[in-house]
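Re: beginner question about structure tokens

> Can someone show what the tokenized structure looks like for a real chain? I only ever see the sequence side.

Sure, here's an example I had lying around. Input first:
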Amino acid sequence: MASICTKTFELALALTLAAFSAGARADSTFVFTLSGQQDFQSCTNPPLCTRDLILPWMGKLTVVLDSGADGEYSQLDLVSFDLVSNLDSFHEPIWSAIPFIARFTVADGKLTSIGAAYYDPPDPDDVTTFGGMEVYEERPLIYFTPAVTGLATLTPVPELGSWAMLLCGLALTVSAVRSPRRDRASRQPRLA
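And the corresponding structure tokens:
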């Protein structure tokens, strides 16, 4: 098990060094889970209100920037921005009369802040706003549809390499804990 972990680590190190030595900017993908709730406000006549419908808002946000180096980025550095959720989904960049303006902060190789506003092309009153690591949804009351507000948080999904290193560390810890027991057992005198 240790040799597999060592080889995985050596391969990851070699690939990282090769990327830095080449000096090329490689696309970097950042994945987040989205969790929160949306409130469908069915109350159009306040004295006669019924209960609002509150639904969980869950999904995944995938952001691909043209580099993963630490720094500030804008929508010009954006390769793709995909929100897929149970209540609302969209993809950027797409052509729209209202451009997608965004800014991103990468620190220690991680996307730590997103500032953006997405206006739904068919209905620009439907706005999804990103601030830091929070997402806010707002659809005002239009015609006979209920108004909608939503709030969710973004949680980074660990990269595959991070999971591999975590599992290798766990395997090495388990083997280190088990080894002394075998040594003690082999030193015990045998009874005839």
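Each token stands for a local structural state, so reading them left to right follows the chain. The chain is about 25% helix and 40% strand.
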